[in-house]
Amino acid sequence: MMNGVREASLDPARGIEGGEADLEDSPGSDRTAWATTGLGILGALAMTSCCILPLVLVSFGVTGVFIAQLGALYEYKWITFSLSAAFLGYGFWKAYRPIPAVACADGSCARPMNRTVMRAILWIATAIVAVAVLFPYVSPYILTF
Length: 145
What we know:
The structure is a single chain. This protein has six helices and no strands. It is mostly helical. α5 (77-96) packs antiparallel against α6 (116-143).
């Protein structure tokens, strides 16, 4: 212990000692990264609820009064954008940050999690959010064809 801060021990006989911070950074705790990825996808779907989702539902033949009510969500567009951006940003941080060497000292990184799928999902969700943000500005030009 140095200046009140616990240091992680890399001695294989004793294992990793260092408290919750080391366990939180271990590859086995990537459940939070997947949860954040899921929240990013939900945020992307929330972004589409006012503008793109009604158009998609009508194109699939789904009709009803509730589709017109989805337009009322347009005033919350920037709130859902802020939440989506926060979730996507945290998801990208979890997906692209390097795994600390301390977390791999006990051999738990012998089979690391495949982050390629997580990264692809995050990029798709980012594209959906970008389309949802730009759609109200681009739709007049698309609808004139």
